[in-house]
Every structure is written in C-alpha cells, then in structure tokens.
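[job 4471] stage=fold_predict status=RUNNING
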Amino acid sequence: MNTQATLPETPAGDATEPALFATMSTMRAMRRLRPDPVPDELLDRLIQAAVWGPSGGNMQRYEYVVVTDPEVMAELAPLWQRCVDAYLATTGKYAPAGMDEAAYGRMVAAIEYQRDHFAETPALIIPCYRFPEPRMEEEGVRKYAEALGPEATARMGRIQERFSALAEGSCVYPGVQNLLLAARGLGLAANITIWHLMLEEEWKAALGIPEDMHTFAAIPVGWPRGNFGPVRRRPVEEVVHRNRW
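[job 4471] inference complete, writing structure tokens
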C-alpha cells in the first residue's frame, strides 16, 4: 500500500474539530508562487507567529532576515539554483520509499519550477539563531557527571556537537512551524527548505549575516498559483508506539 498517499482521517473543515486541524491537514508545501508582492504587514504577522513559538530556556536568541528586494532575490537565485541542482543530483534523485514515481515526478517538477523562478519570489525568510556560550563552573560540571554517571558522561562528550545542534534547532523550529501555520491561515504559500546550508557561507555573505550566526532554513513565501489541498501522510496506526517501541 502506498502509505504516503493516505489522506488524514479528519477532513478539512470538519465542524467538530478546531479550525487549526483543518489548517494543518491542508498545509502542503506550495512551491509555485505568483510574483505579486506580499505586504510587509502580513510578513510581520508571520514573524510575530514565529516569535510566539517556544524557545529553549526562553532565551529568545532568534533573528529573522526577511528578503523582499527583487535585486537581492536576483543575487540569491544562482545560489538557490546550485543548491537545488546539488540536491536533485544526489538525495533528490530517487523517490522516497512508498511514494510512486508519478507523484514524485510532480514534486520534482514543482521544485524545478521554484528553482527556475526563484528571482521572482516575493519574499524569503531566513530564521537565524546564535546560541549563547555555555556558563560552566567546576562544581556544576562535577554534579553534572554525578547525575549522569561515567558512561553517559563519556557518551555526551562524544555526541556534544549533535546535542548542541539539536538544542539550537529546538529553539528555532517551533517558531518556524508557527510561521508556516500562520502563512497557511493567511492564504499564503510557503515551504521550508535547508538546501541553502550547502552554500551557507555564500548565503550569509550575500545577506550580511554575521559569521557566528547560524541559519536554519530558507522559506520562500508568496501567493500560491495552485490550490491548497489535503496532505498525504502515513496513517497514525503505522507510526505510533504505545508505552514502548
């Protein structure tokens, strides 16, 4: 069975469910955008929604670069093309397991359309985050090691880079999801990508982003050329493990 083609059990617009459920169940990645500009006040509402998202330790160290200048977008377009071409030549060359070739072909066509028309993108949002330097003192490190035990402390030393990356991401991505939900609620198309990370230094240089600031996504935003519709996802009974794996 093609599990990725399964429609959500709760239909969009079901009066028995909160409106948010209908929003989530029709929030496709919309890559074909009209070139019409998006008003700054709507983009500010997207950022406000992102700011409302939870941030680890309530540190709120996020920043958002919002690009709407066509000249800047044209400067970014070649970088986007290089990243997309690199993706399509490797990971994106093959359809995911369970997804039929025709459906994947349609998705690739949308990716290629976005690549070829990137300079016409009305708005691009880059979420950034700079994690503060950890404050460590000898007594705290000693208690940390006691609490975890020697084996787990050694393991944490081995995975510290991954732990730090996940900690930063956990401070950013809840806000990004809020932004995507807000875009859908306002009738705007948006999709999250991280392909820019393949050329992150070039993107940061083009946008004047400080070297020590990490970027976590590139989110094109605009008015959709197509229609929103139900997402196709694996059914809950295939992905849930109750109490244990």
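[job 4471] summary: The radius of gyration is 20 Å.
[job 4471] exit 0
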